[in-house]
Amino acid sequence: MRFRHLHSIVNQLFLFCFIGMTLPVLVMGFLSYNKSSAIVEEQVSKVASLTITQVSDKLNLFFKKLDDSSMMVLNSKLIQAVLEQKSETTPYELNEMVKNSKELLTSIMINSTEILDIYIFDVKRNNSVFSGDSLMSVPDQWDSDWYEAILKANGNTVWFGISQTSYLKKTETGFPVFGLGRAIRSWETGEIIGVMFYEIMADLLIDELDRVQFGDTGYIYVTNDENRYFYHPDPAEYGQASRIELPEKMRQSDSDKKKTLVIPEKLDNGWHVVGVVPLKELTADSASIRNFTLWIALGSIVLAVGMGVFGIRKIGNPLVNLSRLMKKGEAGDLTVRSGHIGRNEIGQLGRSFNKMIGQIALLIERISKEESEKKKAEIRALRYQINPHFLYNTLNSIRWMAKLNRTNDVDSAVTTLVQLLEGSLERGGVFGTIGGELELLEKYMIIQEYRYENKIELYTDCPEELLDVPIPRMLLQPIVENAIFHGIAPKEEKGTIAIQVQQLGEDLLIRIKDDGVGMDKELIGRLLISSKERMTKGMTSIGLRHVDQTIKLYYGNAYGVKVASAEGEGTSVLITFSRRKEDHYVQSAAR
Q1: Where is the HAMP domain (predicted)?
Q2: 348 and 445 housed in the same domain
């Protein structure tokens, strides 16, 4: 029951247009968005990975340059000689060697402008320390952490993180610095004879790394082999342990409810460059594709609604209207006509419907006329059964009066008979009035009074406003005749017949009651049965069937005759019919 409205072609047509236009757009838009998002995300990953690789290459080149310059120090004979201080070396020669060593360090600093200073420490503390910057002096460093770290590295390069304080002078520099240190071994014995330390300005390195961004919140950072920040966009993080677990390869992370891509790249010195890429920001283009797809879908929905309404008006509504007209025609309304008679198939269907209804109306009208004539002929045939019997009984009565030499009564009876015959000839039509029928009954009773010597009395009760109501002619006479011959005549004493006319709503009731001998129930049940095989003596059954069938033919099966009787108590005949116009039912009987 809930889906009954879906059976309507209007709703089906609308759903067809709506779903047919919006579903493909939504499905294609969804697939297009997912595909474009995947492509954009893949491209972003590739670009970000390539960026991290480029940064790693630059850092490797930067660190390698510094490492290569440190190799120049390790391979310097002058620095080896100064740190070994052989016994045959004179103070003058030692001073010259230190001087030349400082010039070497200075030349290295000039070629690498990012190097702030180079320091050489004598582990034997014979020559203490000398630097490329002869104007600078440094405090005691033999107990410092970085010094111990360089000795433990056993000749390998040691990198120290970015700091705002000088590693050597322990003072604020005003700019960030980081360090490189290596132990210097004797070429002859292999023992550590010195420690080399580079203090390097980090401005260029930081500026280069700060320029690398991924969206508004993406960034890169550099961690050492202990996963501590060497570089981070926030200087407060320098030297702090990284909160992000270092991945072995590129992976996605959902930290802080943000979908990010973490891209690691290992440097040649064992450190890592890590890029943190916010995918939501870098895949904003796919979001614009999604929004564009939604606008297309919305437009498609509006277009589908418009097309659905257009289809309903041009196709659905005409069909629905035609269906309603067909139901009305099926219910009997043959005046309906379709207004949609265009050139398309629906118009052809409308024209065919109009033609069909017109032909049915003509056919029904023809059948109705034929049925009307047929029913009228049946009524006449019934009446022709009544009239001969009525005439026979009347003439028989006049014959007996003539035998008894009742000349005046014969003359009056013949005159009354002529008047009765004129009233039954239907010259004024099939219908008369209730008042006219009662007048004919009074004339008929004159003849019967002559025959039965005033043994029978007739009483009538009819409101004046009902006297002009139409009624089929000779409708009451057969019943009165039956009451006389079969009810009162067999009695010895005097009898009465009472006729009462009443109105009940739109219906009229005529009750004819006598105080005759009455009938048993079996006879009452056979009175109105029509059977060609059953022959009934007398006219009792014929007269009642005539009246009953006449009423039904003109007014319908809802009306007719009802008989109530009991032996010794008389008989009551009730006639019911409508105040409808003459021939109304007969003319519409075929519908």
Answers
A1: 313-365
A2: no
Q: Locate 254 and state its tokens.
A: 């959902």
Instruction: Give the torsion sign (CA, 321, 326, 331, 335).
Output: positive
Do you know the residue count of the chain?
591
Q: 441 or 91: whose pLDDT is higher?
A: 441
Question: CA 167, CA 131: separation in Å to the nearest integer?
Answer: 14
Is 41 domain-assigned?
no
pLDDT tens per residue, range 493-537:
888 999 999 999 889 999 999 988 888 887 777 776 654 434 444
pLDDT averaged over every residue in the chain: 78
Nearest to 561 by CA among 553, 570, 551, 571: 551
The DSSP secondary-structure symbol of 564 reads: E
CB of 368 within 8 A of CB of 584? no
DSSP letter, residue 581: P
The 10 Å CB-count burial string (b at 16+, else e) for 436-448 is bbbbbbebbbbbb
* Residue 342 within any structural domain of the chain: yes
According to DSSP H, which parts of 313-454 are helical? 317-331, 345-403, 407-423, 434-452
- Give pLDDT, residue 117: 87
Rounded to 5 degrees, what are φ and ψ at 377?
Answer: -65, -40
Q: So what's the pLDDT on residue 530?
A: 55
In one letter, which amino acid is 91? P
Tokens of 385: 């059964």
Per-residue tokens: 105:
């360090």
pLDDT above 70 for 252: yes
| Total domains, the chain | 3
